[in-house]
Amino acid sequence: MASVGAPAASTQPSLPSGITVLRTVPYAFMLPEIFCGTWVWILVAATSVSSPLEQGWVMYVSLSSCLISLLILLGYISGFHTNSENWKVLDSMYHGITAILYLSAAVLQANVAIRSEFSINSSPLYYHLNCAAVFFAFITTFLYILHAFRIYYH
């Protein structure tokens, strides 16, 4: 039986810091997010960029998301978050918004891949690179969605 003046024990789990961040479930998605997002950027950059507007958006989303995710991961590893609950909100909002942006980029890249299949000027290599970029874009979208919901419902 707890005494009346004793502070209640915290039921909120603490945010991980250091290298243990890579072993906890929602934060373990960050390295695959960065890895798959980097592949999206590399694969789109390896094509002839036949649709600069659509593929420019895909490259912007993938590159900026990789860099921001890397900064957040480094913040968790270095312990910069100081176990603040605001970091959970920031992390959940960032990953939710990024999932929406990545979904738009994946759909645009899928459209480019479909058009490159029937294009006279496009080689089969560019079609395959575009399809691989679509695959990694949807995988990255899924990882960002998983991360956002896991943080939100944690």
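(ticket continues) Second input and output from the same batch:
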Amino acid sequence: LLFLSCIFQMDTTQESYLDLFPLDAIVYLTPDSENVLEDIDPSKVYVLGGLVDESIHKKLTLQRAQEQSLQTARLPIREYMVKTVNTKNYHSETLAINQVFDVLSTYYETRSWPAALKAGVSSGKGYVLPDTVKE
């Protein structure tokens, strides 16, 4: 797991984030959350959970966060992006850790979700910004 504090301070450790931070300061980012991340709070620590195969581990990160009584949030992909027609009919809000990091760091710099999502969500995920849809 990778956790981010104030976006620019990144640490890796063998210690559990549960031992390092107060529970009310931790926000576990998971694509299955009902809560939309609207802004980045510098007083919060954002946990980016990493899974290899999204088809086998559906809702695992949400379940883990709920078991630990943590706040959860998801990136606002469906609020700012639209599904695109593709040959595989594939649409996924599950991103790799580096993609989530790119989204968060770009948002922190620009305060623009469209710019941030464009930076981190590849078109292969089946989502695009509305102004890039070809008629």
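Agent notes: The mean pLDDT is 84. The domain at 2-128 is CATH 3.40.1280.30 (Alpha/beta knot). Closing as not reproducible unless the customer responds.
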